[in-house]
Fold this protein.
Amino acid sequence: MKKKVILDVDTGIDDALGILLAVRSGEMDVLGITTVNGNVSLEQATKNTCKILQLLEKEHEIRVVQGANKPLMRPTFFEHRVHGKDGLGGALLDMPVHVEAADGHAVDFIVEQVKQHAGEVTLVMTAPLTNLALAVMKYPELVHQVKEVIVMGGVVQGFGNVTPTAEFNMYVDPEGAKIVFQAGFPNLTLVGLDVTRKALLTDEHIRALGDSPIARYVKESTAEYMERYYERNGVRACALHDPLAVGVALNKQLVTTRKYYVDVETKSELCDGQTVCDFQNRLSKAANVHVCTEVAADEFLELFIRTLRA
């Protein structure tokens, strides 16, 4: 049985790689892909998602449904310097979109699919958590009817990637993230920068992908991304943030997790969007999140390359 999955994305470079991994794995029944404002505008994220499905020749099989066009309470904040103006590093710029997004709203789609397949749906969230927060507010029973939620976001033992303390997805909509973390999901896994920074795609890995339309797309889309990563971190590579969340959905054994109480800061001048993890139970609150602390990075990269080459 294939795992029933909804991907929630703000399709920039690494979301696109996550979509490629999910669809090419052959192990996921992707019920649909929902889009949200984040790396780029909602409109651009939707267009990019449609293009990636066309690259995969799956545009007639997998629905794309648009969601929230801004965070719950904050202005938009885009990451054009990392992902480029188009969100895909200039790759697929000339590709026309043949199949537009489906009718309806992402929040309704998520609720309907979880109701229809109660206890079976895995939500893989690789964007700001606005859509899921809205879905929980609209239909609180979602919390108990979804199989699991896997969130790419946050950092608990390191520094942020947009401020000194905050990871991008948490920073864009901390109020949305707070609602999700406090909703009571029994099975919520946080795939944060603590592990995604160890899953580094290098030129050697890209060469290992061979020569195919997908391999050429990966090389082109990640070229500037790698330059930005080198400028900031001194390593000529790029972190596979969102693909690792998909990898965890495919194989939990890729990561080590521990369950902690995690919350998100929403009222700080310096630390908005910080994921605060109570390692020593000082707040005496019930653990609510399975936090990824270690990753079998080589094994994941082997899975990523093997899947995209297949």
The first strand starts at residue 3 and ends at 9. The mean pLDDT is 96.
